[in-house]
Amino acid sequence: MSTFATIIAVTPPQLPPVLDLGAVALGAVYGATLATSRKAPLIGVLIISVTMGVGGSIIRDLLLHTDLNVLIHERYMATVMVCTLIGVFLGKWLLQPLWLILMLDALVMGAYVVMSTEKSFLFGMPTASSIFIGTVAAIGGGILSDVLLGNQPDIMSRGPWSASIAFVCAVWFTLFATLGFISFAEISTVVLAVGIKGMALWRGWEAPMPEHLYPTEWIRRTRR
User: Fold this and answer.
1) Most CB atoms within 10 A, among 34, 103, 146, 219?
2) What is the pTM of this model?
3) CB 173 within 8 A of CB 189
């Protein structure tokens, strides 16, 4: 059993409902806002909202071989429905300052990293597997939504940090959670996701590419 699992062995293998529902709500609002901006019909908006809201949770629970909570408990779909309406009616205001929708994207990703990595540890998964599950769950809903909207998924695109944020945040959360600073790990991981996204947009940081591993590339970038 992992160190994290040992620390919290006295608690049942479940997440705080507020954390779980919060990530679903943020994802649903973000998905509905994106779909509305693409002039999708109402059913299309709903599908993208559901995909962004619960897609990551479904992927995580499938990897953990556990019950699909978002499909079993009514509160999740009810939350998605309400947040879909919020995205439909407030989406155009959220989109006007572009930075706001990008920060919402980072907030969703950070919340999903926390929710999924923590649940993986609660189920006794080893560290590397928990980081993997946290990363995949955080970007899974976005990938599915990009495919439905006809976009190239972020993980296949060169540009500002996006999917890379999920991996860095999963490692960050794991580091502090295994040291016993669970509350700090939860809050700081979400803050880190938003902070990296903001800095990437402000400073023009590109997501790490394979060629960045070459020594000559490190020297060239250092001399800039």
Assistant:
1) 34
2) 0.80
3) yes
